[in-house]
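Hi there. Long-time user, first ticket. I'm pasting a complex I've been working with (about 609 residues overall). I'd like to know whether the download I got is complete or cut off, because the file seemed smaller than I expected. Thanks.
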Amino acid sequence: MTGASAQVLVVEDDAHLAAGVMENLRAEGYAVSVAPDGEQALAWLAAHSCALVVLDVMLPGADGLSVCRTLRERGNTTPVLFLTARGDPADRVRGLEAGGDDYLAKPFHLQEFLLRVRAILRRWDWYRSASATAATAMLRFGGNEVDFRAFRARSWNGESQELTEKEAMILKVLAEHAGHIVSREDLLERVWGYDVFPSTRTVDNFILRLRKRFEKDPANPQHFLTVWGVGYRFLTEGEP
Amino acid sequence: MKATRVFQLTALALVLVSAVQVGWWLFDQHTYTVEKVRALRAAYAEQAAAAQALLDSGVAAARVQQLLPSIVVSGQHAALAPQLAEALTTEEERRYRQYAWEGSFFLLALAACIAVIARALRAEAQVHEQQNSFLAMVSHQFKTPLASLQLSLETLALRAPGPEAARPLIDRMLADLARMEQMVTQILESARLERGRVDLRSEPLQLAGAVARVVAQLEERARQEQVSISSDIAPTLTVVSDPLALDVVVRNVLENALAAVQGASGGRIELTARATAREVELQVADSGVGFAPGDGAKLFQKFTRLRSGSGYYGTGLGLYIVRRLMELAHGRVSAHSEGLGKGASVRLTWRAAPHPGAAAQPSGQEMRT
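Hi, the file is complete. Here it is re-exported in full:
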């Protein structure tokens, strides 16, 4: 599902905005469907697959945040770009915590919107193509086994793990640069793009989660190493 | 605002401390009186006993009487003078009564102070909350058409479409502007109705004419949206209202009905009216989307939008304004629906003008709120 032919679902209750967004996405070559509320969006997503959901937060009935959460609970990892009239940092964080990929406050600039859509799709294209072959779809380290395509993993103690798309992406970036230092900024740029989060501490939280899942002793990591003041280094073999 | 609150809270604390102090003072005085009376009774008893001892030891009754004036000696028996015992009891009762009256007066006064301050604090918190939700609502209401306007303009700038393709964008922008203009008007109107003094005239008006004027203005829009509007109102019916208020009320109710029918993609709106003994009732029934039967009263509250989407942009103020204007005209308004998808009807009730023939004479009477 690359660029031009990608299917986008626009969930927006305002008919004018929905039409404007739809026309512009179509002009960029995307195939677009529109749902006026959360229930219809979830029904559509249950029957179709798409490359991106543009999701309004303030919707009649179930709001955008709960639609996104429901989607994630169903195991649907389709990227979500939130559009909302409320744009303060706390609202942004709420949106991203609900499983959104990006957040744009109304009124927004058309160019920026299109750029963000492209960026999200590019990140997912990269992730998919980086997990396309049998060799790249699986990652094995320290008795852990990660399946990037299924967003699943089995950790060293035999526990099976459901990865969120962000965890999987971070792991992918780190695995691609195994043995080398990856800065927090790089991780932010590769996984989230732009200035989505107010701080790089978010990345630290995700690394903590990955350590909890895959390290035998999360307090004394062997694979996800902190390089103080710079970022992280991932080792498949564990620290010598 | 903040200084007032600090002042109110300090006053509340002081009043509460005062109430506790008054309580303590009452308790203290009561205990003191009980002790005093007991001590006095004991002293009197001792005097009586001493008098008896003196009598028993042979002292003359007259001498005993002289030494202990509080004691009455009758024969060989000494006892406390009855008027003294009585005075003591009376004084005791008087004190208790005094404490009860004064104490309850002070406590009542303090309780009233507490109630007044607490009420003010609560009212302030309520106003604060209303302002917050009003701001949140207004900002959301404005940002949506603004976002749409910006998107359309940037689309024109980015894609430079030909006149044909630009037309729908321009129409959309004009509609967004109209929507914002309507919102500004309604917000100002509702703010004025809420706090300001609104001067409304109170004169007999012919209902059919007023309705016909509004219907004529909305007919074109109704035709485009495949909505038929029929009106059957006897020309003799006259209501007492302000002419502008009557126009606003009928227009808001009709626009609401249009939106409801539009949401159900086409249908009809029927206006009928009837007179009762002292009132005239206008019913606006539509075949639109309807609402849950319990939601009728909610419709007239500020910022209530039971339904959104489907291309209709309500501010949530239209029916609130209707209700306020009807209240000011000493009329009533109510909405009824059998349920979602089953249409709805709004009933407006005005006072009837006293003589149908007097419709042309304005009374010039003024209503103020």
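A couple of notes from our side: Chain B has three domains: 2-128, 138-194, 200-367. The domain at 200-367 of chain B is CATH 3.30.565.10 (Heat Shock Protein 90).
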